[in-house]
Amino acid sequence: MTFSDLLALAFGNLLRMKLRTFLTVTGVVIAIAAFVALLSFGAGNQKYVTEQFEELGLFTTTIVYPPDSTSAGAGIDSARVVILDDKAVADLAALPGVDLAYPFDAFDVTAVLGDSQQVTRAQALPAAAAGTKLFAKLRAGTVFSGDSAHEAVVTDQFVRRMGMDTVDSAIGRSIIISTRRSSIDSGLAGVFRDQGGEIRKRLTHIRFDSLAYPAYRRDVVRGELKAAMDRFMNGFMDRQVEIRDTLIIRGVIEGLRGNRIRTESIIIPVATARRFTTGGISANPTELFAAVQRGGLFRDPDSTTREYPQVTLVLDPRAAAKPIGDSIKALGYRTFSFAEEFDQIRKFFLYFDLVLGIIGGIALVTASLGIINTMIMSIVERTREIGVLKALGADDRDIRLLFLVESGVIGAVGSILGILLGWLMTRAASLISQSIMKSTGVDPIEMFDVPFWLIAIAFLFGLSVSIIAGAFPARRASRIDPVVALRNE
Amino acid sequence: MNADNLLQTIDLCRYYRRGAHEIRALDHVDLNLRRGELLAVVGSSGSGKSTLLNLMAGLDTPTSGRVVIGGRALGEMSRRELSAFRAGRIGMMFQSFNLLPHLSALRNVELALYFTSAAKRERRKMAGEMLERLGLGERLHHLPGELSGGEQQRVAMARALIKKPEIVYADEPTGNLDLDNATQLGKLLADLNSQGLTVVIATHDLTLAQQIGHRRIHLRYGSLIDDPSPLPEEPAS
């Protein structure tokens, strides 16, 4: 008996019992639809994350951090201070497999655009980095033309904050960027310039023989020191040098790059930004305290060497991330690899899909009981037919195959319709979820995906479970004694 | 074995156990079926006619004894070989026709060729021709329920004959037919036999057996009580 004969007989037999077949197939349809819908949720989320990673080029991006202060020196020469400065950036860029290395170099600025003014953060970026996926996907305009260009790229959020309706309207506009820098000199100038004439007089008033008395130290010396410190801080904060530049906005990027990458409101070519970051310390107290903490307060104010909180590496897509990460760690730095993070995410999705698959599988196992019931009922009703087929020359295998094909047809038809229903369910769920996201102000994302592998797995799963469910009835049918079967009424 | 001998049963027994009782459906039956003869197995209901036919068709397994065809005992064959034997060398007809009710007359006949190597197109052509030959050319696509008893039995006959079997076993073929249809069917079987087909017909109808049978054997309580044919020879080992 050929497979097409088996199929023709199977379809004929199933169509004879329309209601029973319909109910059994419906069980499979519901189970497969649930299986597809559940796994499509996992697949959709995984696809979204993967697309985000690919869109931002994160698979080839590694972030390098200075060593943790608590573990600094661990495993490396403790005499060597490991910092992320320009030399470190150059060393990292020279590592095999690293295409590009650039620091995260941000500073406070005051931005004036038209009538709007705002204190915000700016970031220096090499033109080469501006061309990477992280920054190159623009909502309007282009990236800046070179490291020394008097141009800027701003975020869409910044454009909104500055009162512009559309991102396109920002392109070509001039933006005035200014920052104030202080130095130890301006602090000292505060100490001496304000009351310089009195310093000597006041010092002469200090009675050194009274220094032995705690009350004297507390009331007089400490008071004098506090007054001097206040004058230093006033000088430091007030006598600042303003650095100002006018830049042309060339492009607008998304401010929230998947919440994964720090992007400041204004991105400035690295050489253009240099004048904002040299010549002293920012008036920002945070930067001041950081400088005091790391001992950089008394550094040459004109020095162009800066220390960065992190360096971004763009790796060669053909290079393996792990050996590169290992060699960076060997230099004493900490690293964060998005590719490694994605591996963890993938593992999570694997378990997530497994749980969803098991839930869908339970539904299918329940449906398979319906198949077993239908097939056993069918055997009881068709015992005489089995006898006739055996009298005509069918062997046990033919009978077994006939019943297996019947259960397989139930599984195949149920799976196809189930996949279709599951897909429709995901479309409906997607429409509902996207409209809820829109109404709550969240950018709508596609949470469901029905890739080909899911269709194939759902079909094969439905088919194989149905055939397995039919195996016991089929074996039972094949063992029916033809003489008994022919005597059956 | 004589060249004319097609099939032999040697000391054939088939016993059933029903609770504490042993039922001797067939008890030490020796029979020699010759090629081209029309053998009528006559007996009342429960005499063992159907059991004998089932054993000779390889559908049933004897308690003891042998059925030998072409020098080979059916009991020595595997289940698959037995199926092939039924598929290729014998045709069967039943009292209740045993047509599959959801298949047309054409497909019921074609079904007998499913277990042979015939191609689908060839099968359908052969089935159509066989039904035409038996006067059912207008009824090819009718379901069994739409046919008369006589027509259904002719469809069953077409199904038995389409494989061009060596032997046709007909178990009470006229049992569900009126006199006209029974007579007509008897003639058809006789015609086929006259064309060289070996036919074994099991019937309680002595008149039919006398009309068409070359030879009659009588069964009573599973035992052969009258067989004018010579005793079978031992098959060559």
What does it look like?
The complex is a heterodimer of chains A (489) and B (237). Chain A is of the alpha+beta class and 489 residues long. Chain A has two domains: 3-55 and 343-487, no CATH class; 105-307, no CATH class. In chain A, 57% of the residues lie in helices and 16% in strands. Chain A is built from 16 helices and twelve strands. Mean pLDDT of chain A is 82; it is low at 72-76. With 237 residues, chain B is of the alpha/beta class. Chain B has one domain: Rossmann fold (3-Layer(aba) Sandwich), CATH 3.40.50.300. Helices cover 32% and strands 28% of the residues of chain B. In chain B, helix 3 packs across helix 4 and helix 3 packs parallel to helix 5. The longest helix of chain B is centred in the C-terminal third of the chain and has 16 residues, at 179-194. Chain B is globular and about 50 Å long. At the A-B interface, helix 1, helix 13, helix 14 and helix 16 of A face helix 2 of B.
Concise structural overview:
The complex is a heterodimer of chains A (489) and B (237). Chain A is of the alpha+beta class.
Number of helices of chain B: 7
Mean pLDDT of chain B: 86
Structural class of chain A: alpha+beta
CATH architecture type of chain B: 3-Layer(aba) Sandwich
How is the biggest beta sheet of chain A arranged? 6 strands, mixed, barrel
Q: Oligomerization state of this entry?
A: heterodimer
Distance between the termini of chain A: 26 Å
As a percent range, the share of helical residues of chain A equals 55-70%
Order of helices and strands of chain B: EEEHEEHEHHHEHEHEE
The domain tally of chain A reads 2
Order of helices and strands of chain A: HHEHEEEHHEEHEHHEEHEHEHEHHHHH
Total number of beta strands of chain B: 10
CATH class assignment of chain B: Alpha Beta
Broad shape of chain A: elongated
Spatially, the strands of the biggest sheet of chain A line up as 3-4-9-6-8-7
Q: State the end-to-end CA separation of chain B.
A: 10 Å
- Proportion in helices of chain B: 25-40%
Report the β-strand fraction of chain A as a percent range: 15-25%
Strand numbers in spatial order across the main sheet of chain B: 6-7-8-3-9-10
The CATH topology annotation of chain B reads as: Rossmann fold
Mean residue pLDDT of chain A: 82
